[in-house]
Every structure is written in structure tokens, then in C-alpha cells.
Specification:
4 strands, mainly alpha, two-stranded antiparallel ribbon, 3 domains, Serine Threonine Protein Phosphatase 5, Tetratricopeptide repeat, single chain
Length: about 325
Amino acid sequence: MSFKSAVCSSCRREIQIPSDIPSPTCPYCEAVQSQDATTPSASIANLLGLAGTALAGSNPQEAFDYYNRVLEVDPTSSEAWFGKGKAAGWQSTLGHIRVPEMLVAFNHAIATAPDSAKQQTISLAVNETNRVATAVYQMARKHMLELVSLQKTWTKYLEQVSQLLDCLETVSQWLPSNPTTLENIVHLCKDNIQGVTYRDFGNHPRAWYLSPQYESAMRARMDAAAGRLRALDPVYAAPEVQKKQMDACFLVTAAMGDFHHPTVTLMRKFRDERILTQWWGPSFVNSYYRFSPGLAGLIQDRPLMRKGTYLLIVAPLTWLARRLQIR
């Protein structure tokens, strides 16, 4: 008696069909097979094994191709859909973040999973999304810091983080009780709200911040995630968000003679809470930082000039800040 390899027309498993039996049955599901059943070029089990080996060997493109081959034979393979999503996610680059594609595949994996394995599939998909999103975020942030002086870099970074946040919020609906997803949402929102400080090619202090409208939207996302975390853990405390501070006001620091003087702290808050929130604020502050370091160096060792700077510049600004209730 001879046998030939085939794929069961019902359960899609690889089977051996006896050549001398007209209507053999599948040993797994007992479905009747025909003698012209297709002979697979490679078994599904072998393809899944090759795909898993490729992923373990940090070759997601090869794994992606193997999983696609499995799905061509069996589009209901939850394991292949999950593997395809995972392979897609780990192929993400800054030019092509494939996290949304990963979620589509994970959705199919959840939909095709047996009822007994559905919850586990959801949990695995959520955990993998958090891992990929964290890796992409770290890659995006590193790139942004390397080219931070270019405005388009900051803008692109915000787009990348927003895309990651959208995906995290999607999987947070799949598994609302997962705190890692919510913590990552809070962290990414906090990162954007704080902004970034740097020095330009002329060694002048600079900063990128969110627009007031976008900051408001980002705070709403962060507060929503923090509220859900508190529902899971009543002792959870949302992190304090403080915008990145540019270098201290040079003239004020030189006039007061102490970086930590209360007046210096007051002027920094006045700059951040009042000046930088105006449409003209960032340009004004950047202009100030172009000439103030030189003037600060000129007066810091001259008591009379320091006193004159205080009376003519620092004291009026301090009075204004206090009138505006800056504390």
C-alpha cells in the first residue's frame, strides 16, 4: 500500500492518503477526502516552524513571508495571523511604522482563534503591541534628539507618537484591565507635553513645545488613561508633568547672583506660563537668548551694573509677574 501527502479539505492539516482507498477519511476530523486532494509543497506545520525560527532569529521579513504562505492555504489559522502581525510590527521603521498593519493581523488572529484560546490570544496581542510600540517610540525619540534643531524633526516626531498612541488606545479596548497599555499612554502623552530643550548651532538655548490646542488634547488623553489606571489601582498617582526648562534667564541670574534665587524661579515661570503661551512668545524668547548671555557675562562681576540691571529690568518684570499672580 502506498500513500501520498495531502491537505485535509476540512481541517487543513497535512495527512497521508492511501492510494488504494477510493474515499479515505482524515484521521483528525474524519472528513471524507478525494484521491485528487492537493499535495502541499510544504506542510503548514513546517511553514509555521520555519516562520517561528525566522522570528527568533530576528528575521521578521522571512517570517512574514512564511506566515503569508500558511494563510494562502489556511486563511483561518489564528497562529499564522498572529505571527504575521508580530512580524509586520517588528519590521517598523521611522519611515514606515507598521503598527496599524500589525493590529489588523492581530484582529484576524483574535477572530479566528477558538473560543478556548481567544482570551489568551487577546492578551498576547496586547503585550506584543506594547513591546513593539515601546521599541518604535525609543527609536523615534533617539532620532528626534539627534536632529532636534530642525523643526520638521519635532513635527514628525509628534506624528509618530500620535500614531503609536492611537494603536495603544485601540488595544486598551481589547483588554481594558491591562495597566501596561495605560501606563504607556500616560508616558507618551507626558513626553509630548513636556517638550524638549536643546542648544542650536550658535549654542543658544532653544525649546520645542506643543501648541496650546494640541497640548489640551494630549492632556485629555493622558487624564483619561490615568483615570482608568486609578480605577484599576486606587493608590495610583499620575506623574507630575513639568515642561522642560530652557537655561535660566541669564540677565536675571546674573543680577541676583544665584541660579536658585526666588526671583530667578519667578522669572522662569513668568517666561513659561505667560510669555511662551503667546503667539509672539517663542520668537521673543529666542531673540532674548541671542543677546542676554553676553550681557550677563558683562555684568556678573560688576556690582554697580548688576544693581542697575536689577532696578531697570528685573524689578519691573518681577512686579508685573506678581501682578499677574505668577507664583
